[in-house]
Amino acid sequence: MSDIFTEAKKSIFAISKKFNLDQDEVKDFLEPHRVIEVEIPIKLKNGQIKVFKGFRSQHNNRLGPYKGGIRFHQNVTREEIMTLSLWMTLKCAVADLPYGGAKGGIIVDPKTLTEQELEKLSRGYIRAIYDVIGSDKDVPAPDVNTNPKIMGWMVSEYIKISNEKKSNIPENLLYATFTGKPDRDHGLAGRVEATGFGGVIILKELVRKLGLKPETQTIAIQGFGNVGQYFAQFAADNGFKIVAVSDSKGAITEKNHKFRALDIPLVLKCKKEKGMVAGCYCVGGVCDLTKGRPISNEALLELPVDILVPAAFENVINEKNMTKIKAKIIIEMANGPVSYRAYEYLTKKGVVIVPDILANAGGVTGSYIEWKQNIENKKYKKEEALKMIEGIMEMAFDNIWNEAKNLKTHLKEASTVHALKKLLG
Ligand code: NAD
Fold it and tell me: What is this structure's pTM?
């Protein structure tokens, strides 16, 4: 079986061929400009030295500095990071942001480290990639298992090294080298919500175009982390019925598919207390597991809901389960959750799929506003930031919707072609 990067390239290449884009240019475009591999030795609490492997893939900077998150996960591979960096290049072009694409990652299960060890690892990674990042070169951000606290450690290490090197980089540009920082530490009020918020803007635009009413639409969300939680919250605020959610330990939904809307703030509170959503069946102000039903993550994907929102990992909807998917709309909030084959199959069946490079672009859009705020030495209010994200996401949706109409194709091909037209030549 070929790796994820080969698969991603194949699918983009096939789309570009179908729409007569220059094949040599596309081939050149697909390869990252540079992939850096680093080794980070950390002294653990028990005195042992452990060496962790990390990557930074700088895919393309034609439209602006490389931009992309840093992932901490035991399954990180060089190919995965290269793929995610390629998708970042396309995503920034779809959202019309002045950025290229990048991605970073460390092979580590962060749950096995103490907070101090995690801080050493985060700082060590920045020391290792210091020379290749900067506000006008490459701007990292959070991704799976990284958060504002980790970004705070990273920017503090970056500033420390810059001082050691007497770099003379102005302070605001040192801060502009990272996004997703804590709000009180030059971050953006609204950045943690940005990805989920942006996804719901896209969903609202889509149901409007399809002539559907939010109140009639049931939603199942896979992944209840940064993206999934805020998506759930904003979707519920806009009248959609969230009827099932899951995290790595399992899912929760109503018994017998009667589908009552979950009380999302209560589910969040319950997850905080219990450490998982599986015991948190909360509806109408009470949590009562006897009325709900814990199910597996696989079963959540196959529920007879209207809208499915994969917000955890790549490739969760694939050749093995595609025939069992019943949702009529899929919003790809994770990166690459629907495999190429599954995408083709489901689209032919009439399922409307909003591709990741459009659906989850709210995150990098929030990052762009944070970066701009640092460069301009400003501080935006949360409402201002969310308003700006809303405007950019609505514009991106409109562009891709119109491109799909022009090309007479689905949203994934339309967004890929739309991005490639900006990036080639
Ligand atoms: P996160 O680490 O905050 O959350 C991931 C969630 O997925 C957790 O709830 C975890 O328990 C759950 N999970 C893990 N394995 C699972 C499984 N097998 N089944 C169901 N749930 C599982 O990560 P995040 O930042 O929310 O990112 C989620 C996805 O969204 C990733 O694909 C990421 O690349 C993408 N994304 C994130 C952002 C962002 O701003 N954070 C932006 C764009 C795209």
Answer: 0.95
